[in-house]
Write a structure and sequence with these properties.
Among the domains are: 32 residues, no CATH class; 156 residues, 3-Layer(aba) Sandwich (NADH Oxidase). It is 42% helix and 10% strand. The longest helix is centred in the middle third of the chain and has 24 residues. The protein has a 4-stranded antiparallel β-sheet. By secondary structure, it is an alpha+beta fold. Helix 1 packs parallel to helix 2 and helix 3 packs across helix 6.
C-alpha cells in the first residue's frame, strides 16, 4: 500500500501524490489517524507519560518563549467534576489519562519581573502566542502518543467551563485552558474523518476561495456517502427541521447557529490579558 491510498481514504478523492511512497512511518500514521473514544482498561505507565511529555515539549515554540503548560487531572474528585461538566462526552470517564493543555503567558511576565525588565507588551499578541504554543504542544503530544499505539481525543468543550476549570485547577493569571485531551490504549478502532480537499485549504500566492461552493457541495456528498448522519443525530431539529441531505456543512452551520462561549473573552480578560 502507498501513501496515495491513505490520502484517497482521507479525502475521498483519487490521488497521485504519494503513489511512489510506501505507507509507513510518521506520514502514514498521520494520514491514517483516527480519534479514539473507546479505551481499554489498561493504564499508561508513568515512564511512558514522561517520555511523551518530553517529546511534546520539544515542539517548536514562538521565539523560544515556551508558553504552554499541561495539567494532568489525576485526583478522582477533580476528574469526577470535569466529567459532570462534560457529560455529553461519556467516554472521558473511561480514559486512563485526562489532561488540560494551557496557554501560559505567566512565566514570561514572571521572568521580566525577576530580571528587573519592563513588560510593555500587554497585547492580544501575548494571548495568541500562548494559545498557539499550547496548540502546537497538544498536536506534538498526539503525534508522539499515537506513534506508540495510544489513542487520543482532543476536547475543546473544556472552554465551555473555563472559569470553573480555572478555579478547580488553580490556574493563576495569564494561564488559560486551550483544550483537554483524553489518552489511553484503544479498545476499538475509531472512525476516519474525511477532510476538506486541499483545493479549499491550500492556496498559492494569494487567498482564493472562488471555487469554494462547488468544492463544498462535492465534499458534502462524499462525506455523507462515506458516513451518513442518522436523522436522530441531526442538530437542533426543533429549530431547523430534519434535512433529507445532511452534509458536513449543514451540520457545522447548525452548530454555530447558537452562541457558544460568549463569555470566554471576559474570562481571558479576568485572567489578566488586555487583548488590545
Amino acid at each position: 500500500m502507498s501513501l496515495a491510498t491513505l490520502i484517497e481514504a482521507r479525502y475521498g478523492l483519487a490521488a497521485e501524490a504519494g503513489s511512489g511512497l510506501s505507507a509507513e512511518g510518521t506520514l502514514a500514521a498521520m494520514l491514517a489517524r483516527r480519534v479514539c473514544r473507546d479505551y481499554a482498561e489498561r493504564p499508561v505507565h508513568e515512564e511512558l507519560m514522561q517520555v511523551l511529555f518530553a517529546a511534546a515539549f520539544s515542539a517548536p515554540s514562538k521565539s523560544d518563549l515556551q508558553q504552554a503548560s499541561v495539567v494532568r487531572v489525576v485526583d478522582p474528585a477533580k476528574r469526577a467534576r470535569i466529567e459532570r461538566w462534560l457529560a455529553s462526552m461519556p467516554w472521558i470517564a473511561g480514559a486512563p489519562e485526562l489532561m488540560i493543555f494551557c496557554g501560559d503567558n505567566r512565566r514570561t511576565r514572571r521572568i521580566a519581573a525577576l530580571r528587573g525588565k519592563p513588560f510593555p507588551n500587554d497585547t492580544l499578541d501575548m494571548f495568541m502566542n500562548a494559545a498557539v504554543d499550547a496548540g502546537i504542544v497538544l498536536q506534538a503530544f498526539i503525534t508522539a502518543a499515537e506513534s506508540v499505539g495510544l489513542g487520543c481525543c482532543p476536547l475543546s468543550l473544556v472552554r465551555d467551563h473555563a472559569r470553573e476549570l480555572a478555579q478547580l485547577l488553580e490556574l493563576p493569571q495569564w494561564v488559560f485552558p486551550v483544550a483537554g485531551l483524553t489518552l489511553g490504549y484503544p479498545a476499538a478502532p475509531g472512525a476516519l474523518s474525511m477532510r476538506l480537499p486541499l483545493s479549499v485549504t491550500v492556496h498559492r500566492d494569494r487567498y482564493d476561495d472562488s471555487g469554494f461552493e462547488a468544492a463544498l457541495e462535492d465534499y458534502d456528498r462524499r462525506r455523507e456517502a462515506a458516513r451518513p448522519t442518522p436523522r436522530a443525530k441531526q442538530r437542533d431539529p426543533e429549530r431547523f427541521g430534519t434535512a433529507d441531505r445532511y452534509g458536513w456543512s449543514e451540520d457545522k452551520a447548525r452548530q454555530y447557529a447558537t452562541p457558544q462561549r460568549a463569555d470566554f473573552g471576559a474570562f481571558v480578560r479576568a485572567q489578566g490579558f488586555a487583548l488590545e
